[in-house]
Amino acid sequence: MSSHYEAPIRKPLILGDKSYHDISNDIARPVETPPDKDWWIAFSIAMAAFLWGLGCMAYTLGTGIGVWGLNKTVGWAWDITNFVWWVGIGHAGTLISAVLLLFRQKWRMGINRSAEAMTIFSVIQAGLFPIIHMGRPWLAYWMFPIPNQFGSLWVNFNSPLLWDVFAISTYLTVSLVFWWTGLLPDFAMIRDRAVDPFRKKIYSLISFGWSGRAKDWQRFEEVSLVLAGLATPLVLSVHTIVSFDFATSVIPGWHTTIFPPYFVAGAIFSGFAMVQTLLIIMRKVSRLESYITIQHIEMMNIVIMITGSIVGCAYITELFIAWYSGVEYEQYAFLNRATGPYWWAYFLMMSCNVVSPQIMWVKKIRTNIIWSFVISIVVNVGMWFERFVIIVTSLHRDYLPSSWTMFSPTFIDIGIFIGTIGFFFVLFLLYARSFPVVAQAEIKSILKSSGEKYKKIRDKK
Amino acid sequence: MEELNVLNVITRIMQNKKLYWKGIEQLDTDSTIVEGLENNEFVEKLPVNSDDEKNSSRRDFLKYVGFSSAAAAIVGCEGPVIKSVPYVVQPEQIIPGVANYYATTIADGNDFSSILVKTREGRPIKIESNKDASTFGDANARVHASVLSLYDSNRVQGPKISGEYTDWQTLINLVRVSLDNFSKDDKKVVLLTQTYPSPSSKEIISEFLDVYPNISHVTYDAISNSSTLDAFENIYGLRAMADYDFSRAENIISVDADFISDWQGGGYSSGYTKTRVPDKSKKKTMSYHIQFESNMTLTGSNADDRVPAKPSELKKIVARLYTKLTSNGEDKGSINPSIDRYVDSCIAKIMKSPKKSVVVSGIDDVDVQELILLINSYLKSEVIDINNPRLIKEGDNQKLNNFISDLESGNLSGVITSGVNPLYSLPNSDRLKESFKSLDFSLVFSEKEDETAKSAMYLAATNNYLESWGDYELKKGSFFLAQPTIRPLFDTIQFQDFLLKIMNSDLSFYDRIKSNWQNRILRGKTWGKSLQDGFYNDFSSLNLKAKKSRASISSLYEENSNDFSLVLYSKTGIGDGSQSSNPWLQEFPDPITRVTWDNYLTVSAVDAKKLSLNNYNVSNGALNGSYAIISTEESELKVPVLIQPGQAEGTVGLAYGYGKTEGMNDVMKVGVNAYSLYHNFSNTQSVKITKSEGDHEFACIQLHNTMMGRDEIIKETDIETYNSKEKSYWNPTVLVSKNHIETKVTSKEVNIWREFDRSTGHHFNLAIDLNACNGCGACVIACHAENNVPVVGKEEVRKSRDMHWLRIDRYFSSEDTFEGDVKAKDEASGYSEYRATQTKLEKAAANPKVVFQPVMCQHCNNAPCETVCPVAATSHGRQGQNQMAYNRCVGTRYCANNCPYKVRRFNWFSYAENDEFDYNLNNDLGRMVLNPDVNVRGRGVMEKCSLCIQMTQKTILDAKKDGRRVRDGEFQTACSNACSDGAIVFGDINDKESKISESNKNDRAYRLLESIGTKPNILYQVKIRNSKKV
Questions:
Q1: Is B124 among the domain residues?
Q2: Last residue within a domain, chosen from B17, B47, B67
Q3: What b/e string do you get for B917-950 counting C-beta neighbours within 10 Å, with b at 16 or more?
Q4: CATH classification at residue B564
Q5: Quick check: is B587 in a domain?
Q6: I want to staple B297 with a disulfide (CB 3.0 to 4.6 A). Which of A72, B94, B258, B831 is the partner?
Q7: Quick one: B308 and B380 in the same domain?
Q8: In whole angstroms, how far apart are CA B155 and each of A5, B194, B792, B984?
Q9: B830 and B928, same structural domain?
C-alpha cells in the first residue's frame, strides 16, 4: 500500500536511523517497563479529580439537580457546555484516522492511535452529561426505543436529543471498533514479545488471535477501509446533530441554520487542539519524538489555524445575520452576547478561538513546541467558552424580559467538570502504559520509504 | 452370627425396605444403642420446652425457632401504617371524590369576604369567591390563601396556663374566679378586641360587660381607620365608613387611596374594573382614573394618570379640590404647579359629570377625610354611598391611647384580648410587653402563640375562622353568616362561646346566632337558605344628614420639615400580618416590586442616589440592596432598601405585617416590623434616612423591570385611537417574512406544522383582558391551592427557582409610555445608537407607566416544548391543552429551554416531605390542604399549568352524567374562577356562542409573541388607557 519512494523535498515522517526492531522496541517500551514516579503523580492527581467528580455526581444523584446553579430560565449551563465540549474534542480522532486514511495522508500514522484513544475517552466523558443532567437519570433508558410495557409509549423521534443518543452511540461504537481493529496487530506484537505468561494471556485475548498471516493482513486492510468509509460521514453527522439541539429550537441565538458546519469546524478545531496538548506531552514522556515529529505538530497547527478561521467566519456571520435578519430578538441576543453581562465570556471566546490561532501563520511559531502547547490549551479554553456563550447567553435573556436572569455555577458544577477531566486522564494514562500508543504496524509500512536507514540503502544502490 | 446379621440386613435392603447403613453396631441386633437410635433420632434431649419434655421434638424445635424468628422479623419491620379510617356509617353528604362547598364569611379585622369553601372528604382545601353575594363577594389573594392558615402547624392545640397545656374547665374556672374577684374589688380590666361587625358577638360582649361592669371594651384595628371613622362621625353622626360603588364612576380622583387593595377594607376592585373595559361594539367607554400618591401602589399603577407627590402635597391637593369645586372658603396656599395642572384638569373633568365623579383619599387625617365627604356630597356623587355605610372597622385611636397609658401606668389589673396581637402591632410594643407581663391577669384568645399570647398568663386557643360560627353586618343592610367547614382540628373554643361559658349560659354561640337571625334579622328568608347562601340583604338603609364640618383648610397647607415622609402601607400578600406565617403568602410576589419573603423601604431613584443607596444583581442574577436606618424621634429601624420607580421624591414606603418573631417557624421570620414606626396610628411619619452597613439579599422573582420596547409582549393603545381607528392600526396582525414577502403570521403559507382538525369536541382557550387585570394576584394563590404548587423558600426563589405556574409579569415603561419605548427602539439607527438605546431601555422611568400581564403556559397549538422532548412526556391534548405526563418525564429540561414564554417549572429537589423545605408540604397537617385531584410532583420532573384539566374533565363528566351539553361559563380554571374582576375568561371556542369565542373574535384579541408561530391557546386583550398621547 505504500509507495517505496519519498521525495527528497518531503520531510521524513520517521526520524532517526530506525530498524523495524527499533520501532518495536520504542513502541513496546512504555508497555513493558514499569511506570515511573511522574506517571504515578499524574495518575494520582487524575484519580483524585475523578473521585472528587464522582462524589459530586453522587451528591447530585442523591439530592437533585438543584445542587447545580441552574434556574427556571437557564435550564442548561455547564452540563451541556461540558457535553458539547467533550463531544467536540472527540472529533479529531475519527477525522485523523478515517478521513486522513481515505486521503492517504501518511503523517496520520504517528498520531492516529492516540487521537482515537482520546476520541473514545472524551466521548465517554461527553456521554456522562446527558445522563447525569436528567432530573431522573435512573430512567435514562427511556431514551432508547425499547419495546416496553408502559402501554404504547415510544420515544419522540422529532426530538434532537433523541438524535443525539443515536449519533453519540453510533459514533462511540464505530470509533471503538475502528480503534480496536487497528490495535490488533500491535497487541499481537506485544503478545509475541511478552515473557510473563499472564501478560501474554491478556494480550493474546485482546489481540483476538491475530496470526499475522497474509489473509489477516488482507482482511485488516479491507476492514480498515470499510470502517474509514463508514466513519467519515460520522465526523460530519455527530456534531451536526449535536448542533441540532440548538438549531432546531426557537430561542434567539440558538435558532441558527449556520450551526451544523460551524459546530463541525469547531469540533475539529478543539479536537486537534486536544490531540496537540496530549501528544506534545506524550512524545516527550514516552520518548516518541522519532514518530511524532515537529512536522506532525506543524500539520496539526495548520488544521487548527484553518478550522479556527472557519469558526471565526461563523462568529462574524452570526453577527451579520442578526443584523441583516432585522429580527429584534436575534439582534438583541447578539448584542447581549457581545456587550451584556457575559461580555467577558464572549471576549474570551473571540480572543482564544479567532485571534490566537492566527499567529500560526508564522512558521516559527507553528513549529515551536511551547507555542503549540500554549495555543492548544488556549483553544480548548476558548472552545469551552464558545459553548458556554451559546448556551447561557442565549437562554438567560430570551423573549420575555420578565424571565431574564443570570447563571452562576456551584462547586458541584465545577466539581463534576473537573471530575470528567480527571476521568479522561485516568483513562488516557492507563492507556499510555498498556496500549501501543503509536500504530507500529502502520509506521513500519512506511519505514522503507521514510526511514533514514532505508533511504541510505536506497541511495547507495 | 455375624454373617446372619449381615444377611438379614441385606435381605431387608433387597426387600426394598428403606434402611441406611449407619454403623457397625447395626449388625448387632441386640444393641441397645441401635434400638435407642431407631426410636429417637436425638440421643440426648433437646434443651427446649424443659418443663414439658415429653412432647418436644425436633419438629417442635424448628416450629418454635421458625415462629419466633418470623415474629421477631415482623416486629422488627415497621408495617405500613395507613392513617385512614373508613367510614363505618357514611355521612350523608360526603361522597369520596366529590367536593362539597360551604358558604361562609371571613372577617378577621383586615379581610372581609363572603366565600365558598371547597371541602373534600371533610377537609377544606380551597377558597372561592361567593359570586352570589352582592357586596363583599370578592376574595383577594390573602383570603384565597387563608385555607392554608387553618393547617398551620404552629397553631396552639389547646388552652394554656403560663405556657403549659391545661383543660378548658380549669381555665374557665380560673378565669371566672379572677373576673369575679376583679368585679368585686372594682378593678379595671380591659377587653381589647378586633372589630366585630357581628350583631350576635356584639350582643354577647355587651352582656358580658353587663355582668362585669368593671371591664371596658376597646376595639383595636391593627391598621387604624380612625381618622376616616372620626370624619364620618363628625359629619354624619355615625361611626362607620362610606361605601363606594366605583362601577358608577366616570371620573375617579384618588388621593393616595389604594382602593384596589386594602383601602378602607378593600373589595372595591370588581366595581372599578367594570368601568375600565371599553367595548367599541357596545359603545361602552371607560372611566378616567387619576391617582395622586407617594408610594407606587396597585391602584396607582392601574391609573390612567399617576402623579407622584409627597404626603404634604397630597393634603394640599384635597384642599385645592375642595375649595375649587365647592367655591367654599379661601384658598391661600401654594401648591406645586406641575401638580396643580393635574388638579385643574381633574376639576374640568369632574365639572362635566359631577354626579359620576368621586374623590377618595387614604390620608390619615380627619380634616382631609371630612373634606372628601364634603366634596362628594357637594358633587352629589352617585359613587359614594352614605346611607349604607361600611361597618367593618370601629377602632378608635383615642380610646386605644387611653388603654395604652392605663396599661403603662399600671392602672389596669387585667387585659383580655381577642383577634388582636397588640404586643406585635402597637408601635411601642417592646415597652408595653413589660407592663403586660406584670398584669395581675391576662387572657389572650389566639390561634397561635404569638407575641401577645406568649406574654399572657392564660392562653385560650381559638378556632380558625373555618372552624367557627359567626354572623356579620359588614355594611348597613348586608348580613353575612359564617359556618364551620370542619370540626375544630384541635382542642379550641371560639371567643364568643368562651364568654357564654363564663356567663354560665347554656346556649352556644350557634344557638344565639340562629335565634338572633330568626327573630330579628331575617325577613322572608329561612335560616337554612341564608346559611346556604352565606349572606342576607335586608335592603334597609339609613337616612343620614350632613352636619357642618369644622375641618380646617389652612392646616392642610402646613409645610412639614425637610425630612423624608415615610408612608406605611399594606402589602397585597401580607396585609396587616395576621397571616404572615402562611407560606403561600410569603412566597407570593408583590405585584409591584415582585419581591417575595420580605418587606423593604421603597425609595425613589433620585433619593437613593443622594443617600448612596443601591440595588444590584449578584452573579446568579439575584437582587441585593443596601440597608438604611429609618429614624424617628421615638424609634429607629434598620431596613433593606428597594429602589422603586414611581416613588415620589422625598418619600419612602414600608409595608406592615412583617418582622414577627413568635408563633411561626424560623424560616418564616422575615422582614422588619413597620408597626414600630406607626406612631399616633398615622400612616405618614416624618423620618430621617441614613445609609447603613451591609447588603440585604432579596428574593425577587422578576429581575428585569422593563419591556425593552418589545411590542409583541404587551400591546396597548389609548381610548381615542381605539375608538376612532381600525383594528389594523392599533392591533395589527403580526407579519413575518416568507421569501421576502411580508405575510400574516396567521396565514397557512407560513405554517410548517401539520394541523389537525380541532373543530370537534372541546377546544379550550383562555383570554386575559389586560384592561381588567389589575395585578391583584388572587389567581396566583388560587392556582397554588388548586394545583398543589410547592413553596420553595426564600433561598430558592433567590436562585430564580420559584415554582409559580401562573405569574403576573409587571413591566415599567422606560420612557414616559410603552409606546415611547417602542419608538425609541425603532428609531435607533446604527450600532452605537442601538446599543445605547437598549442600555437605556433597561432602566425604568422615574414615574413609569405600569402594566400587569398574567402569564401561564400558553398551551401553544404548535408547541416548541412538545417537539423537543425525547420521551414525549409533553404532548398535545385533543382539547388544545399542552399536557405534561409527569410519570414519563425524565427531566432533560429541554422543553423549558425551548419555551419562549418560560412558563415551565422544574422540580430541582423533592419539595414534599423534605426537611430542607420545611413548609406546609413537610408536615401532616399542612399536607391536608392538598387537592387530591392533582398529584404532588416528585423530584426531577417538569411541571406547569395544565389549564386545570382536572376541573374541565369534571365539568365534562358532570354534563355527560346529566346527559346535557356543557353550558357556557361552566368551564373554569382556578385562575378564571378566582378573578373577581373578570379579567380571565375561560371556555370552549367550539361553542360559538360562548364568552370565550366572543373574546377570541374581539378586535382587541392578540397572542403573546405571535411572530414565533406558536399559535397559543391563551389570548390577551389589548390594553387601552384613558390618557392623552404624550
A1: no
A2: B67
A3: bbbbbbeeebebbbbebbebbbbbbbbbbbbbbb
A4: 2.40.40.20
A5: yes
A6: B258
A7: yes
A8: 94, 19, 22, 35
A9: yes
Three-class SS state of B852: strand
For residues B854 and B751, membership in a common domain is answered with: yes
Contacts of A141 in chain B (CB under 8 A): none
Coil, helix or strand at residue A445: helix
Strand partners, B841: none
**Claim to verify: residue B769 and residue B694 sit in the same structural domain:** no
pTM value?
A: 0.89
Is A20-456 assigned to CATH 2.60.120.10? no
What is the domain-level CATH number for residue B822?
3.30.70.20
Give the best residue of A242, A323, A399 to mutate against chain B (max B CB count within 10 A): A399
At residue A1, does pLDDT exceed 50?
no
pLDDT at B209: 92
ipTM passes above 0.90: yes
Q: Torsion over CA of B264, B268, B269 and B272, rounded to 10 degrees?
A: -130
Among residues B370, B390, B410, which one ends one of the domains? B390
B706 CB near a chain A CB, below 8 Å?
yes
Q: How far apart are CA B471 and CA B132, in angstroms?
A: 17
What total of structural domains would you count in chain B? 4
Same-domain check for residues B695 and B737: no
pLDDT above 70: percentage of residues in chain A: 98
Domain, as residue range, for B47: 2-67
DSSP, collapsed to helix, strand or coil, labels residue B694 as strand
To the nearest 10°, report the CA torsion of B371, B373, B379, B385. Answer: 170
The minimum CA-CA distance between B872 and chain A, rounded to whole Å, is 5
In which residue ranges of chain B is pLDDT below 50?
1029-1030
Q: Read off the pLDDT of each residue in A166-170 and give the average, rounded to a whole number.
A: 91
Residue B440 lies in a domain: no
Task: State the pairing for strand pair B984-988/B1023-1025.
Answer: unpaired
How far B598 CA sits from the closest chain A CA (Å)?
Answer: 20
Long-range CB contact pairs, B168-177, < 8 A, 24+: B168/B491, B168/B493, B171/B458, B171/B460, B172/B498, B172/B501, B172/B502, B174/B458, B175/B443, B175/B458, B175/B502, B176/B502
Angle at B529 between CA B527 and CA B531, to 5 degrees: 70
- Of the pLDDT bands very low, low, confident and very high (cuts 50, 70, 90), residue A439 is confident
Cβ neighbours of A159 in B, within 8 Å: 867-870, 872, 894
C-alpha–C-alpha distance, residues B385 and B393, integer Å: 16
Q: Are B689 and B742 in a shared domain?
A: no
pLDDT in tens, A337-384: 999 999 999 999 999 999 999 999 999 998 999 999 999 999 999 999
Residue A131 and residue A125: Cα distance in Å, rounded?
11
Over residues B536-563, the pLDDT tens digits come to 988 888 888 888 877 777 777 777 667 8
* pLDDT of residue A393 exceeding 90: yes
Does one domain contain both B583 and B694? yes
Candidates B810, B838, B901; nearest CB to A400:
B901
pLDDT of B1029 reads: 47
Residue B695 and residue B721 in one domain: no
**DSSP classification of residue A103:** T
pLDDT tens digit string along A105-145?
Answer: 888 888 888 889 999 999 999 999 999 999 999 999 988 88
B808 and chain A in contact, CB less than 8 A: no
Say what the pLDDT of residue B757 is: 84
Query: What stretch of H or E contains B692?
Result: strand B684-697
The helix (H) or strand (E) run that includes residue A249 is: none
Report the residue of B893, B914, B1015 to disrupt the A interface, i.e. the one with the largest count of A CBs within 10 Å: B893
Which of A72, A135, A161 has the CB atom closest to B902's CB atom?
Answer: A72
